[in-house]
């Protein structure tokens, strides 16, 4: 059965939870604790307030993510070609080109359908154009990201949160 939007809040909450986990280095802290270590200094996280969140896809889920992110004091932006401009304006979300979103975001979250235009939208070229240490959350489809390019970006530190 087709139930558009039925899980939008759940996916948005998962997305924000994953961003919090990355910001606070929860995966690394969990691994450290399970290894019997307490590495407090190396596990200090970062605040989300004032960071730029780039939302690729401002449909039901992307909009729910934006609503929750506002509470954290994010600067929100969405790619013009992947959202309805009226929706962005009504919700205080800055419209930018895909290139500007890629280059200017501290965190990027993906909430688009899989189409010929979005397949591999995150690839070696777009990853190289991102801020060093960018964090990417993909709660949409795996095919949006070129896996080999992402692995290389993780190894080099271009994309943060390897653990």
What does this structure look like?
40% of the residues lie in helices and 13% in strands. It is globular and about 50 Å long. The mean pLDDT is 91. The protein contains seven helices and five strands, in the order ααβαβαβαβαβα. The longest helix is centred in the first third of the chain and has 16 residues, at 8-23. Helix 3 links the parallel strand 1 (52-56) and strand 2. With 163 residues, it is α/β, with parallel strands linked by helices. Helix 1 packs across helix 3 (60-70). The chain has a five-stranded parallel β-sheet.
Topology:
Blueprint: H1 8-23, H2 26-34, E1 52-56, H3 60-70, E2 75-79, H4 85-90, E3 94-96, H5 98-104, E4 107-110, H6 124-129, E5 135-138, H7 147-156
Helix pairs in contact: 1-3
List the defining traits of the structure above.
alpha/beta; 163 residues; globular; 40% helix; 7 helices
Could you write a compact summary of the structure shown?
By secondary structure, this protein is an alpha/beta fold. It has helices at 8-23, 26-34, 60-70, 85-90, 98-104, 124-129, 147-156; strands spanning 52-56, 75-79, 94-96, 107-110, 135-138.
Q: Which structural class do the helices and strands define?
A: alpha/beta
Strand content: 5-15%
Mean pLDDT equals: 91
Q: Based on DSSP secondary structure assignment, what is the total number of beta strands?
A: 5
In sequence order, what are the helices and strands, one letter per element? HHEHEHEHEHEH
């Amino acid at each position: 059965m087709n139930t558009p939007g039925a899980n939008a809040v759940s996916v948005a909450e998962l997305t924000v939870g994953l961003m919090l986990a990355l910001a606070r280095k929860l995966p690394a802290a969990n691994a450290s604790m399970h290894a019997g270590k307490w590495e407090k200094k190396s596990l200090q996280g970062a605040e989300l307030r004032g960071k730029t969140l780039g939302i690729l896809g401002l449909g039901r889920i992307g909009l729910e993510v934006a609503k929750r992110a506002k509470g954290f004091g994010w600067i929100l932006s969405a790619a013009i070609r992947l959202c309805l401009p009226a929706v962005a304006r009504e919700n205080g979300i800055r419209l930018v080109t895909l290139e500007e979103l890629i280059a200017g975001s501290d965190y990027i979250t993906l909430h688009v359908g899989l189409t010929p235009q979005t397949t591999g939208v995150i690839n070696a070229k777009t990853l190289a154009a991102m801020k060093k240490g960018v964090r990417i959350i993909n709660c949409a489809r795996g095919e949006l990201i070129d896996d080999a390019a992402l692995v290389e970006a993780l190894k080099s530190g271009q994309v943060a949160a390897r653990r």
